[in-house]
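Researcher: I'd like a candidate sequence for this fold, 88 residues long. If you have to choose between options at a position, lean toward the conservative one.
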């Protein structure tokens, strides 16, 4: 588990190719696109609850539950579909 201090340092460095901030995620297609971009590169970390400018508005428990469902949907319905299409 990452410490609060380490997390704050990582956020303070800002966004780059391997670190992306999303204040909130409401779209499975957009999420799948971000995850696919990381998968097709050297990987990365998607920080949810963090705005583009590094401000941390956070997420409610309801938000976390909704985003977890979006992640599951994006992986099972969108990323697998893309992966299978590439195999053909």
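Model: Candidate sequence:
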């Amino acid at each position: 588990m990452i410490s609060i201090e380490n997390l704050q340092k990582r956020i303070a460095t800002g966004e780059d190719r391997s670190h992306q901030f999303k204040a909130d995620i409401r779209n499975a297609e957009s999420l799948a696109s971000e995850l696919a971009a990381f998968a097709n590169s050297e990987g990365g970390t998607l920080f949810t609850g963090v705005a583009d400018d590094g401000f941390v508005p956070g997420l409610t428990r309801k938000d976390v539950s909704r985003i977890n469902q979006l992640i599951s949907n994006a992986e099972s319905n969108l990323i697998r579909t893309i992966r299978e299409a590439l195999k053909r």
